[in-house]
Amino acid sequence: MIPPQLRSFVFQLIDATNSGAVQWTPGEWPAFFCSHKDFTIHLASRPREYDETTLLLMRIESPDGSLAFFEVSQYEEDFVTMNALFDSVSVNASNMAQKLQNFFD
Amino acid sequence: MPARQICLRDSLIFEYMPQKTLASYKAHLIWAFVILVLSFAVIAYFPKLREDAATWIGALSAFITFYAILFAILEARQARHAATSAKSAADLAKDAAKDVQQRLGSLATTKEITECIANIEIALDSLDANRLIPSITIGRIIELYSRLCHQQVKDQKSAEWGNVQMLVSYKMTATGRTSRTHSKTRDALLTIVGQLGSHEAGCRQAAGSVSPTGIQG
């Protein structure tokens, strides 16, 4: 689950990602990372080893080197929020919205 | 204290005492000879100095005093020279210590580079065999690489920072059941090998081209 202290941060991150205020970079698929104000954030998806449940993982590294890490499984309520973030991030990292601007021309 | 120990102690004291050079004795002897000749010449040239015992002794005392002053001047000059030599010896020792420290630092860096490259080889072999890179291997690569390029890794616009993030993203997504090529991880590992190769050449040069005086050739 998303730690309660970081819940509002995750919602703000979704908004910042959608608006382009934060730019993500594709990592090893399916993972992305971004740097903003000396913070580094990783977002990744992977199946859990023993039951193939999809996990969404977030890793936050602060400028002083301290780390925070949490994961959300597909059976948790927070998965909807994290999945929304993951979708926004994948669009942001690929610059797909800009690439598709002339799709129907 | 037994006599043997006293002898040993005295010999050690003697060994570490500033040694008088043959040249310094020679200077004293030459000046003593010059003063002696001069005193005889003066006494021979001025017969009044030999008139009575009091005048004779007075003249002799004057020459002895003159020699004593010369002796003191010579000793002072030698002491100053010895102090200058000791200072330059201390500077040389300091340079040598710095040199050794530099060499040891370069050797430690070379060792870390070698270990990092060995771990990268294991990682690349695993990718070639479609196996998961052991967590300890990828963790060690990140640790060593971050330490070796600590300045560059802090810069979020540098290629080194990007390489580290790519390896972290591999670590986060890697699972046992994978047939993906992990091309980005492979590229990052190969880039790191190239960077470390040139870094290692620089370190070996630094460790090998330092002259005994501590001045890099």
Please give the share of residues in helix of chain A.
25-40%
Which strands sit side by side, in order, in the main sheet of chain A? Answer: 1-2-3-4-5
Q: Biggest sheet of chain B, in brief? A: none
- What is the C-alpha radius of gyration of chain B, as a whole number of Å? 37 Å
| CATH class assignment of the largest domain in chain B | Mainly Alpha
Q: List the secondary-structure elements of chain B in sequence, H or E.
A: HHHHHHH
**With helices defined by DSSP (H or I, 4 residues minimum), what is the helix count of chain A?**
3
The low-confidence parts of chain B are 1-17, 209-217
Largest sheet descriptor of chain A: 5 strands, antiparallel
Oligomer: heterodimer
* Number of helical regions of chain B: 7
What is the CATH-assigned architecture of the largest domain in chain B? Up-down Bundle
Q: Which structural class is indicated by helix and strand composition of chain A? A: alpha+beta
